[in-house]
Design a protein that fits this description.
The complex is a heterodimer of chains A (about 900) and B (about 120).
Chain A lengths: L2 H28 L8 H7 L6 H14 L5 H11 L5 H10 L5 H8 L4 H36 L9 H20 L10 H30 L2 H10 L9 H17 L1 H9 L6 H18 L1 H11 L9 H8 L3 H42 L7 H26 L6 H12 L3 H9 L5 H23 L8 H6 L7 E2 L2 E2 L7 H23 L4 H11 L1 H4 L10 H15 L1 H14 L11 H15 L1 H13 L5 H76 L5 H32 L7 E5 H15 L6 E4 L7 E5 H18 L6 E9 L2 E8 L6 H4 L12 H4 L5 H11 L3 E4 L7 E7 L8
Parallel strand pairs in A: 4-6
Antiparallel strand pairs in A: 1-2, 3-5, 6-7, 7-9, 8-9
Helix pairs in contact in A: 1-9, 2-9, 2-13, 3-14, 3-16, 4-11, 4-13, 6-7, 6-19, 7-8, 7-15, 7-16, 7-17, 7-18, 7-20, 8-16, 8-17, 9-13, 9-14, 9-16, 10-14, 11-12, 11-18, 11-22, 12-16, 14-15, 15-16, 16-17, 18-20, 20-22, 25-26, 25-28, 27-28, 28-29, 29-30, 30-35, 31-32, 32-35
Chain B lengths: L3 E5 L3 H13 L3 E5 L5 H8 L3 E5 L7 H10 L8 E5 L4 H9 L4 E4 L4 H12 L2
Parallel strand pairs in B: 1-2, 1-3, 3-4, 4-5
Classes of the chains: A mainly alpha (about 900), B alpha/beta (about 120).
């Protein structure tokens, strides 16, 4: 068989796949053929889990490690059998949230975090790269096998050149069918159909080789069993820790590998397909693995010891001259490699364009992007090419000569770092963005250090010294023996450490941080996805809907209004009762009515939930939250308004009370004035009338009555003067005539004035005229008026046997205090506070003969002069202190 | 019959004027200037008619009137109130306490005499 023939067969095969994919794509667009969307196609598409690693590598793996290869089948089998627990939830979330990739799932769960999306994308790319290299390697090796087998027929091709061409070819296929359009749901019917066909080809090829080996070479099942028992396989012990670690890693991988997520979740047409896949896929895996041990055992006994066991599937048929069977096996391996690479490339390209290119593009370009679709498609095409180029680079760097299985586990362990964030995200509402970011990044770092970087081998990236002694000679940091834990298999070591660090970081980070509102909403939607979504459901209009709507409307609008609304609609539709058909018109109307009460977004979401069966999207919920916030804002404003109103009301009440008090005061004042005026007038009138009658009066009596009239008239005049004086002072109209005067002179003048008014009162005055030698600048007349008033009061009211008045002047800084203290019984404590009020008279007015305005006037005057007058308690007799500013500087004094 | 009038008034000049007028008209006049002891003064003096000022030291004329009306001996005693606070409210208040006549200061002498004479009856 020539190399050209092999290439031709490959090209024809790829051409066939093109046709199938193209046809399926067209059919799907037109409405499709039913079987294209059957659960069987779905199950077969899952077979991209079985890559070239499985097709070729499983035999090699079995030859080296016995039954351990089964772990990579047991993990996924357990996950699929337990699909009800986790897979179903993932698929439901993927459909209800329109998830496009594993990165999208995590980003979306944690509040649409762009950072997490980017991180997961990077991890996925890095984690998938070894895997892509693996496929290139296996295809390149398989080409090489044919070259070695027939050395004369064609020149041994350059392995790297072959790998380049394989990579280019796969990139072209992936670009053609993976980026034809940018669907909202990112489903690729053509590709899925093509890989389903490839799944059949690889299963058929492996079974054919297996049957040929068992019955054609070994001679039946019994003979094979004997060979197995005779081979070293039978004596390989089970490494329990590796088994557990590998089952865990492969089980987790099927959930989170980008390509598996693509076919399991994104390409899923119908949730019920999972039920079929849950038994059919394990069956497929069993079929793929049933001949692995026989092929390995026969290969080890038939072929020379230097033969690469990874290629027994090809070399055994070739060794027995079955070129066609070998060609079939080659196509099987080719199928395994291409299907994996194409789906992985598409999945990664979607992630790169959505989570790295697009955010960068949008942040770099301020203006609205003109053709986003073109940007997306271009970035996806470039990403596919870039991803395959990376795979090629890894293939070249890692030497391309190592066993397939080891590379596979490096890849798995890397990608599995996102699993805690995924599983935590869909089962634990407390999981937060911070926790996920910490867990994923720490896990990825540990993985890179303990497994990925060392996988290139010593001195490629990490120097050999680091492997032996640790970085900087720190032995506890050796990549394969962290913290001094030695003796573990590198994969087990990496799995344990990376997952431990990852999960711990995730848990602690989540507990310590607080989720944003969007995160909480998304968390609720993910964790409670079965409550939020109703699964597949028609647009049927049922009576139950109208009833549900009525119940809801009653709660919001009130029973009467809601029933009226429904009854009216029913009447319009010509139906009796309260339950109209839920026509779109009616739903619109109901939505408007509800919107008036609860806001448009809430109303829309409620009606959508009940009548149309849509799930409530995050946007809906955010809108609801916005409305609630607005309503709250309104209510806060209202509350502020009402507080302001009650404050105003209180102020008004207080003002009103003050006015009422003032009015009462005014009435009382008017009553007082009336009394004070009428009393002297009464005497005057009465005596005037007596005098007018004239007859029968002594001259002496006549004289006396006239004197009374005169005195009363004077009293009246004094009263009027005082009132006018007070009024002028109180209303601020009094002008001051200030000049500089000696305090001693003012006091002397006041004493003289009171002495002349009330001669012979016999009150002793005690004063120190030296102390009084103070220059003051003030209205002398007004100050004298105050002094006169105080001295006159003392003369009038002092009830001591030998009345005496002490006048003491004291200079205190910029002011002077003059105390007037008599030796009478003083003013009772309870009256001291009222003596400065108008018309306050403590004793008989007969004794005083005044209106009770004197001290009120004094108070007003002192206020005018910038000083004060106060009663001094506890001085023995009545005591008043007049304080006033000196009014001139010290120097002038 | 006796024409005994008791003046309860704290303003000496007014008391003197009324005393002169009433004495000239043939009344027996006694006077009292303190509010606090006025009710006792009425009981002691047993006047035929009382002239009662409102603003008195110690006790207001209204309180004195109320006490007089509460006592069976004096409940029918003619009382003329004289006040310098001539507001409507004062008059109403006096009437509600059962005043016989309410007069505002300043008054005309003739009016006082006529009122007191009419209060005693024919």
């Amino acid at each position: 068989m020539s190399f050209d023939l092999l290439v031709s067969v490959s090209l024809v095969y790829v051409g066939l796949l093109f046709v199938i994919a193209y046809w399926a794509e067209r059919r799907a667009l037109k409405g499709g053929v039913r079987w294209l969307r059957s659960p069987l196609v779905y199950t077969l598409s899952l077979s991209i889990y079985c890559t070239a690693w499985t097709f070729y590598g499983a035999v090699g793996y079995a030859s080296r490690s016995g039954l351990e290869f089964l772990t990579i089948y047991i993990g996924p089998t357990l996950v699929l059998i337990g699909w009800w627990w986790c897979l179903r939830k993932l698929v439901r979330i993927g459909r209800s949230q329109r998830i496009t990739s594993i990165a999208d799932l995590i980003s979306s769960r944690y509040g649409k975090s762009a950072l997490l999306g980017g991180m997961v994308t990077v991890i996925a790319v890095v984690g998938t790269t070894p895997y892509l290299a693996l496929q290139l390697q296996s295809v390149t090796l398989s080409f090489g096998v044919f070259a070695e087998g027939t050395p004369g027929s064609f020149p041994v091709p350059d392995q790297r050149a072959t790998a380049v061409w394989v990579a280019v070819g796969m990139a072209v296929f992936a670009i053609l069918f993976g980026t034809r359009n940018v669907d909202a749901n990112e489903r690729h019917h053509g590709v899925v159909t093509a890989i389903a066909l490839e799944a059949l080809v690889k299963l058929f090829a492996l079974l054919a080789v297996g049957i040929f080996i068992v019955w054609g070479v070994a001679g039946g099942i019994g003979a094979v069993a004997e060979r197995i028992n005779a081979s070293p396989l039978a004596t390989i012990p089970l490494d329990r820790s590796r088994w557990l670690a590998l089952i865990f890693v492969s089980g987790a991988a099927i959930l989170v590998l980008p390509r598996m997520f693509q076919v399991l979740v994104v390409e899923n047409e119908d949730e019920r397909h999972l039920a079929t896949a849950s038994w059919a896929f394990p069956l497929y895996l069993a079929a793929m693995s049933v001949f692995v041990i026989p092929i390995a055992a026969v290969g080890m006994s038939e072929l020379p010891s230097w033969a690469n066991p990874d290629l027994f599937v090809l070399t055994l048929p070739l060794a027995h001259g079955h070129d066609l069977l070998a060609l079939l096996a080659f196509l099987g391996g080719f199928s395994s490699a291409t299907s994996m690479v194409i789906v992985a490339a598409i999945a990664l390209a979607t992630m790169i364009s959505n989570h790295i290119v697009l955010p960068l593009w949008l942040s770099l370009r301020a203006e609205a992007p003109g053709n986003l679709r073109l940007v997306l498609l271009t970035s996806r095409r470039l990403s596919i090419a870039g991803v395959l180029a990376l795979g090629y680079v890894y293939y070249v760097w890692s030497g391309g000569g190592r066993e397939l299985a080891a590379i596979g586990f490096v890849s798995f362990t890397g990608v599995v770092q996102v699993m805690p964030a995924v599983v935590g995200g869909i089962f634990w509402r407390g999981a937060t963005r911070i926790g996920a970011a910490i867990g994923v990044s720490l896990g990825a770092l540990v993985w890179a250090y303990t497994l990925f970087l060392p996988s290139f081998g010593p001195d490629v990236i990490l120097p050999a010294r680091v492997f032996a002694e640790g970085p900087f000679g720190l032995g506890w940091l050796r990549p394969h023996a962290l913290f001094g834990i030695e003796g573990l298999d590198p994969v087990v070591h990496a799995v344990i450490w990376s997952m431990a660090v990852n999960c711990t970081g995730f848990l602690l980070g989540s507990i310590a941080s607080f989720p944003t509102p969007l995160e909480r909403l998304q968390g609720a939607q993910f964790v409670n996805v079965f409550d939020y979504s109703r699964g597949p459901r028609g647009w049927s209009q049922s009576k139950a809907e109208a009833e549900d709507l009525l119940i809801m409307a009653q709660r919001i609008l009130g029973p009467l209004e809601a029933q009226d609304l429904f009854a009216e609609e029913a009447r319009i539709q010509g139906k009796a009762g309260f339950l109209p058909d839920t026509t779109p018109d009616f739903l619109d109307r109901l939505e408007r009515e509800l919107a008036g009460s609860v806001g448009a977004a809430t109303a829309h979401a409620m009606i959508g939930q009940i009548a149309i069966g849509t799930t409530v999207s995050v946007e809906d919920l955010m809108a609801v939250a916005d409305e609630a916030a607005q309503i709250m804002e309104h209510s806060i404003q209202l509350q502020a308004k009402s507080e302001e109103l009650s404050r105003t009301a209180r102020q008004l009440r207080e003002a009103n009370q003050k006015l009422t008090e003032l009015s009462v005061q005014k009435d009382s004042f008017l009553g007082q004035i009336s009394h004070e005026l009428r009393t002297p007038m009464t005497s005057i009138r009465a005596f005037s009338e007596i005098l007018m009658d004239g007859a029968g009066m002594e001259a002496e009596e006549r004289q006396r009555f006239a004197t009374i009239i005169h005195d009363e008239a004077e009293r009246l005049t004094r009263l009027l003067d005082a009132l006018l004086d007070l009024s002028v002072l109180e209303h601020g109209q009094a002008s001051l005539n200030c000049d500089t005067v000696r305090l001693r002179d003012v006091i002397a003048r006041a004493l003289a004035a009171t002495g002349s008014v009330q001669p012979g009162a016999g009150m002793a005055i005690r004063r120190d005229t030296l102390d009084e030698d103070i220059l003051i600048h003030t209205d002398t007349d007004r100050l004298a008026q105050v002094f006169i008033n105080i001295i006159a009061n003392a003369r009038k009211y002092c009830d001591a046997a030998e009345p005496q008045l002490r006048i003491v002047a004291t200079r205190r800084g910029g002011s002077v205090a003059i105390d007037f203290i008599d030796n009478g019984s003083g003013i009772p404590v309870q009256s001291q506070s009222v003596i400065f009020e108008k018309f306050c008279r403590l004793s008989d007015q007969s004794a005083a003969g005044s209106a009770g305005l004197g001290l009120a006037i004094c108070r007003e005057i002192m206020q005018k002069l910038g000083g004060s007058i106060a009663y001094l308690p506890g001085q023995g007799g009545a005591a008043f202190r007049v304080t006033l500013p000196v009014g001139i500087s010290e120097r002038a004094a | 019959m006796g024409r005994h009038v008791l003046l309860i008034e704290d303003e000496p000049n007014i008391t003197e004027a009324m005393r002169f007028i009433l004495a000239r008209d043939g009344w027996t006049v006694s006077s009292h200037a303190d509010g606090a002891t006025a009710v006792n003064a009425v009981s002691r003096a047993k006047p035929d008619v009382v002239v009662l000022d409102v603003m008195l030291p110690g006790r207001s004329g209204y309180d004195i009137l109320r006490d007089l009306r509460a006592n069976p001996d004096t409940e029918a005693l003619p009382v003329m109130m004289l006040t310098a606070r001539g507001q409507v409210r004062d008059r109403e208040r006096a009437e509600s306490f059962g005043v016989s006549h309410f007069m505002t200061k300043p008054f005309s002498n003739r009016e006082v005499l006529d009122t007191l004479n009419s209060l005693l009856g024919p």
